[in-house]
Design goal:
The chain is α/β, with parallel strands linked by helices and 495 residues long. Helix content is 25%, strand content 19%. The protein has a ten-stranded mixed sheet with strand order 8-7-6-5-9-1-10-12-2-13. A four-stranded antiparallel sheet has the order 15-16-17-18, with helices on one face. The protein has a three-stranded mixed sheet with strand order 11-3-14. A hairpin with a 2-residue loop joins strand 15 and strand 16. Helix 3 crosses helix 7. The longest helix is centred in the middle third of the chain and has 23 residues. Bound molecules: magnesium ion (MG). The site of magnesium ion has 6 residues, from loops.
Length: 495
Amino acid sequence: MKYRSRADMRGQTRARYLVGLAMLALCLGTAVPLQAKTNRPPNFIVIFVDDMGYADAGAFGSKVHRTPNLDRMAKEGRKLTSFYVASSVCTPSRAALMTGSYPRRVGLHTSPAGSANPLVLFPGSSRGLNPDEVTLAEVLKKRGYATGIIGKWHLGDQPQFLPTRQGFDTYFGIPYSNDMGVEVGHSFPPLPLMRDEKVIEQEPDQSLLTQRYTQQAVQFIQRNKDNPFFLYLPHTMPHFPQYASERFKGKSANGIYGDTIEELDWSVGRILDSLRQLRIDENTFVLFTSDNGGVPAPILTYRGSNGPLRGWKGSTWEGGMRVLAIARWPGRIPSGTVTDEMILSTDMLPTFAKLAGAEVPSDRVIDGKDAWPVLAGAANAATPHDRFYYYQMGYLAAVRSGQWKLHVIRTAYNKDTKKTDMEDVLELYDLAKDIGETANVADRHPDVVRRLQAMLAEAREDIGDDQTKDAGKNVRPAGYIAMPKTLTRGDSSRK
Ligand code: MG
């Protein structure tokens, strides 16, 4: 199917088209323009920044960062104040966005067994997103979309697991986190910058990454303006170690962390400007969000803020998994609005599929649901979810249903063993009245506790729980290879 852009229609062709359209419109009322609009599937852009705090943009309450483009995006779109990612760390969160499924369901809730760090994938890992999973990119590609990823992948660095094997036509970026290179002092191989499946640079100048990603993103948009496209832009920043280009370095009121946020904001502005210039603004759905919550000061150079939310990246408090999010699609998503209805990152797969007229895989469980009525501001539209599970890696830690959130286990540092253990808790919070999770009201609402405990029992049976040793009857394996290799040769002498 070929899609015609306005730019293609020039001179007589354009005049004839307009006269024809006007005549048809006279005969059929408004049916023709609407028909024309709905026949062309929308473009999707997901801007997925790394470790940005809930309150790090002006539109979400920051008084310290200048984010005019995000603020404008919020004015032109819809703020999502109860948007959840499925994990408070990188790899599992990304696995959920790509598959529309809980990370534990697709086996990417941890590193491989026996890894030194249990949280995320490390260079040369034997594990990755199973190629049998159907990614958001594959869903849209099947419908004829051009698909591109620019930025950090972090779902496996072996050839079988790279984005080019998981539905993306093109890839420019780093395969895992930016602290997994020789710079930060581990014995990692040099950080690779990749184009498609080739390493094109080692230890790239990170101060230029936001700029370079943005340039690549704008070029991708320009190249694909005449056909539907999906652009996934998982920025490297503001993850540690933070870098900004000369233009932004030292300019914010919040150190290098603030500099990276202000440069990311600039990047958002460039993307939105290019959509306007190409006149595809009204046919493009843009989502801006973060892969997990902010990181506390004064660790390293982070100075993120999760505003009213308790906790940070790495926790199942709201500050770990409820993230700032803005959805914008002029004419389709009501401008200057806010919704506090619960929307999940896993909802993007079925929601985009519906809008694109694409198919959601029907041979497996997909946890996400169509969130379009809430995004579109339909009258009385409510969240499609009666529950959301908070997993701490493989451990089922909490559940939210409506205003209620029940915590049942939490990580606790054991001074004697010098290990982090899981500790049983029973804490109920009323998020409608107590967004900061300060007052445990479990004693006052035993019925609510019982109802939420029953939901947790269902999750254990379905998705599993390391705490109770439930494997989960509807889980799928991660991808695994026996003999992984690093993308670039290791240099353990530089520690
Ligand atoms: Mg992250």
